[in-house]
Amino acid sequence: MKFLVTGAAGFIGSFVAKSLCESEHTVVGIDNLNDYYDPKLKQSRLNRLNEFHNFTFVKLDLADRLGIAELFTSHQFDRVIHLAAQAGVRYSLENPLAYVDSNLVGMATILEGCRHNDVEHLVYASSSSVYGMNEKMPFSESDPVDHQVSLYAATKKSNELMAHTYSHLYGLPTTGLRFFTVYGPWGRPDMAPFLFTDAIIKEEVIKVFNHGKMMRDFTYIDDIVEGIVRIQDVIPQKDESNKNSEPSSGRAPYRVLNIGNNEPIELKTFIQAIETAIGKVAKKQYLPMQDGDVPATYADIAKLQNAIGFKPKTEINFGIQKFVDWYRNYYSV
Q1: With 80 as the cut, is the pLDDT of residue 126 above it?
Q2: What angle do CA 228, 95, 91 make, to 5 degrees?
Q3: Which pLDDT does position 157 carry in this prediction?
Q4: Would you call 212 exposed, middle or buried from its count of C-beta atoms within 10 A (0-12, 13-18, 19+)?
Q5: Strands 55-59 and 26-31: what pairing?
Q6: What mean pLDDT value characterizes the chain?
Q7: Does residue 286 lie within any of the structural domains?
Q8: Across 85-218, where does the E strand assignment appear?
Q9: pLDDT at 185 over 60
Q10: Which residue among 152, 183, 220, 254 is the active-site one?
Q11: Neighbours of 309 (CB within 10 A)
């Protein structure tokens, strides 16, 4: 089949594109290669993909309405995996309009492209951040998600609403995946694993928010990719008889699923795993919770398991060792 993968130079997008290429699909990847973080890292990810004869890269911004429309018309994709977005909860406090352009306008251009070109299935990235101030654990797709605490989270909730509208009005099958703290080799420099590893190796102080008591459902990249690749093959169906009014499903060919490790750990434990992998003890500065953050995330993944027969399984010490090994190799330290 022919796939469009947006955010192909990004962390998750590059791994998904690689997996699809290895399965002999034709993949067109787009990315705007912005400088939110080091563009050299994005280019290095792309270099791995450019080794595949069945991969084509197009530099394109999601907000370029004409460019996106022409891309869809010229390629006639079978399926679309939409992973491009302006990422980062904390950055959204400082630069909210970047999230409007990328995450709202960008989602609209992708939905329009899928609608007008008979795309079989749109799989898109949502986020555990949509659960906001929810205190019930684990987070379930049936939980109401009306109290986001960052604009980033609000845009992801908006993406789910937009997708449902297109599924309902135009019969476009859509699956939203609420990712839970993805980590692993080639990860983003603004995420905790990278920040902590970089600082510990350089013997610099790391900032530990909420005094290390935050809980996160850290999910290894290989598990995320397997979940995405499996779910894109399970297309939601319209079901007029479905009386279910919960937020994650309904009568339209639409669904939202959690994808997480289903095993949250304390930030302190996560830091200890990095210290062990590096062989150094971190210098820590304990700080209160930051605006836009939540104390804990924990994924109920029963619906994902029912849909694809898969449960993330990578243990934290193994995943962290893989990340640290990659970091040392990539940066020659």
Answers
A1: yes
A2: 55
A3: 97
A4: middle
A5: parallel
A6: 94
A7: no
A8: 121-127, 174-179, 182-183, 205-209, 215-216
A9: yes
A10: 152
A11: 9
User: What's the CA gap between 246 and 239, in Å, rounded?
Assistant: 14
**Structural domain of 134:** 2-180+218-261+298-313
- What pLDDT, on a 0 to 100 scale, did the predictor assign at position 156? 96
pLDDT of the residue at 290: 80
What pLDDT, on a 0 to 100 scale, did the predictor assign at position 332? Answer: 95
CB 119 within 8 A of CB 113: yes
- The C-alpha atoms of residue 37 and residue 200 are separated, in whole angstroms, by 20
Residue 284 in any domain: the answer is no
- The domain that contains 253 carries what CATH number? 3.40.50.720
- The Cα–Cα gap between 144 and 23 comes to 37
Q: Is residue 104 part of a domain?
A: yes
Q: Which of 91-100, 142-151, 220-229 has the highest mean pLDDT?
A: 220-229
**DSSP string of 107-124, one letter each residue:** HHHHHHHHHHTT-SEEEE
Which among 80, 161, 162 has a CA at the least distance from the CA of 113?
80
CA distances from 188 to 11, 38, 170, 185, 254 (A): 6, 9, 35, 9, 30
Amino acid at site 331: Y
Answer yes or no: is pLDDT of 135 > 90: no
pLDDT for residue 214: 87
Active site residue 152: yes
Q: pLDDT tens digits for 52-76?
A: 999 999 999 999 999 999 999 999 9
Task: Please give the pLDDT value at position 270.
Answer: 94
Using CA atoms, how far apart are residues 145 and 169, in angstroms rounded to an integer?
A: 23
Q: Is residue 29 part of a domain?
A: yes
Q: Which residues of 102-126 are buried (b: 16+ CB within 10 A; e: fewer)?
A: bbbbbbbbbbbbbbebebebbbbbb
If one counts the domains in the chain, the total is: 1
